[in-house]
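Data availability (excerpt). The following record was deposited with the supplementary files.
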Amino acid sequence: MEVTLEELRGRLGEEGLVVLDVRSRAEFTGEDGYPCDPRQGHIPGAVHLDVQELLELAPEQIAARLPAGTEVVAYCHSGSRSAFAAQILRAAGYDARNYAGSWHEWSRDESLPSEAAK
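Predicted structure:
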């Protein structure tokens, strides 16, 4: 099951929920991004782990980065990389879901908070 914008908006900052940004470091910091997005940066409180790096980690290495027993909501720009990341995380034993709207959707709603490098 995927996470909707409404669900994530309501659960942002919830204990036991990890919002995982699997985009590149430059996308996460807001230094780079897709020109179709009105804002650059990331969802506040998100943990960054590039999907390319995630692919190279063994389950115990993932556990060192993401606490066991947490629910993970992965997002990227448009939901493709994060869908793949959620599959990897489920295979590693996590309760992981994809936010398919991802940054492309989040960045369009000015009422939603965002963070970027200063």
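Summary of structural features: The CA atoms of residues 22 and 53 lie 9 Å apart.
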